[in-house]
Amino acid sequence: MAVDITLSVNGVPYPLTVDPHASLLHTVRGDVGLTGSKEGCDDSECGACMMLVDGRPVNSCSYLAVQADGSDVTTVEGLSDGETLAPLQEAFLTRGGVQCGFCTPGMLVSATALLDRSPDPSEDEIRTAVSGNLCRCTGYDGIVKAIAAVAAERAAQG
Amino acid sequence: MSTATSMTTSASSRTYVEARDVATAVAAMSAGARPIAGGTDLVVGARHGKAPLPAALVGIHRIPGLGDVAPTDGGGLRIGALVTHATLMADPTVLASYPGLADASAIVGSHATRANGTLGGNVMNSSPAMDTGAPLLCHGGVAVLVGPVGERRVALADLWTGPGRSTAAPDELLVAVELDALPAGGASGSSYVRLQYRRQMEIAIVGAGAVVTLGADGTVTGAKVAITALAPVIHRVAESEAALVGTDGGFEAAKAAGAAAAAAARPISDVRGSADYRRAMAAVITRRAVLTAVRRARGESVPVPASDTTFGS
Ligand code: FES
Ligand code: FES
Fold first, then answer.
1. Domains contained in chain A, number
2. The pLDDT of residue A133 is above 80
3. Residue with CA at minimum distance from ligand 2 atom 4
4. Dihedral over Cα of B197, B199, B203, B209: its sign
């Protein structure tokens, strides 16, 4: 029996009718139409589907949409201000944190969750935070440096 | 065994309700629904084809009052079933008094697993490889279950009966796990150490938890040791504990405790390690867990999670 829910995605409320077993990822990509979040494994291994649900990082492929009813969901599309990229997005571009880009939406969301809870992370904390996000291309170094650079910029701005 | 037809439920037969109190959840469970909180075991298990997602689900993730960590009247700790690993690993009381539990919570899955995975789900999944199991057992963990006829308390040692199996009835909801007060008669330290091929996104190949109490003269007056991923259930090892009491808690004593743990282990061989390797490592990992607990009991600071820093000990 389909269930009526409301998902607030990047601040916009979407009334939806979903199958109880539908994943948050498929619902956001298919029903809401935001395809920034990727499906790499559908198995909580790769992190390409990472979203924030009420600020918590969630592997949305393995989270039921019905459980997010009434929650605030943030996807990669919610990080920028229109066409103006967020500092993390800029830093990924300038520091070699992006190659094919498939892991990038999830990486950015994980990094956002990290900096929200720990504004001045050590390199170890950064590596821990993105360890649930697999990247086939970059070798991770540019990603780690990009996150560290944004943390340092923020610290410098006080 | 599941048949091909029962592997998937038709969309029309699936139901979901969200419970806002324990009674509603238990009523739904009595009618056949399975509880779901973070979904990090249930949904991921279904993705793996381990078991299909149950047709009837009851969301328990927003039940108020199940997400608290609070002291008990007896000086112990009550951890609500919905407390996440992320909360546990940063809780000041857990870090100060039950650091072995923080060691375990800090290495479960990835940060997303820890942000959503709950202690209750971990306990009721009854995995012999779950990281929090050994520390909970060492601290006398008791499951508080609520069913249609009321509440009952079951020691975790009597709850787990095998991989994925427990003595809880399908209509009993775990609401909390209670831990004993720290042992009297001296300063206590605890730890959990696992053998891991990588630091995150890992499942214990072998694990061990220890709680050690030292008297005023530094003699071990009490010890609890439990081993992980070395038998169908996580269990205490009385021989390891006996090998420690009365000693100075030094390397030789810890080594004897490790040897006893290896002797008690009944490991399997699988893709992550052979039985022989696991048995050999049971000695090493138990030794490290004991030595770490002793260091903490002596007041030394050992960072959480201990697994990342105890190589070579
Ligand atoms: S698609 Fe969700 S973790 Fe890979
Ligand atoms: S940039 Fe290609 S997977 Fe990360």
1. 2
2. yes
3. A135
4. positive
At B87, the pLDDT band (50, 70, 90 cuts) reads very high
pLDDT tens figures, B203-228: 999 999 999 999 999 999 999 999 99
Domain B187-305 carries which CATH code? 3.30.390.50
Average pLDDT over residues A126-145: 96
- What CATH code is assigned to B69-179? 3.30.465.10
A93 and A71, same domain (yes or no) = no
Atom of ligand 2 nearest to the CA of A100: 2
- In the predicted model, what is the mean pLDDT of residues A27-45? 96
Looking at the DSSP bridge assignments, the partners of residue A108 are none
ipTM of model? 0.95
Task: Judge if A22 and A56 occupy the same domain.
Answer: yes
Q: Are residues A58 and A96 in the same domain?
A: no
DSSP per residue, A33-67: ----S--S-SSSSS-TTEEEETTEEEEGGGSBGGG
Any idea what the Cα angle at residue B75 is, between residues B70 and B77, rounded to 5°?
35
* Interchain CB distance below 8 Å, B44 and A43: yes
* Site residues for ligand 1, CB cut-off 6 Å: A 39-49, 59, 61
| Nearest residue, CB atoms, A67 vs list B36, B86, B112 | B36
We report the CATH number of the domain holding residue A69 as 3.10.20.30
